[in-house]
Amino acid sequence: MLGKMLKYDLKAMSKTMLPFFLVIIGMTVLNSFFIHFEWMTGIIAGSSIIFGLFIALGVTALVMIITQFYHNVLGDEGYLTNTLPVGVDVILFSKLLSAMIWLCLSGVVGIIVLFITLATTAGASEFFSATFDVIQAFFLAFREYTSSTLSVLLLVVLGILAFLVFLANEILHFYCAMACSQLPILSKNRIVGSFIAYFVLNIPLTILMAAIMGGLTCAANLSPWLEQLDVFPLGLLMLTTFLLVGLLLDLLLYLPTRYILKNKLNLE
Question: For 98-120, how does the pLDDT look when each residue is reduced to its tens digit (9 = 90+)?
Answer without folding.
Answer: 999 988 988 888 888 877 777 77
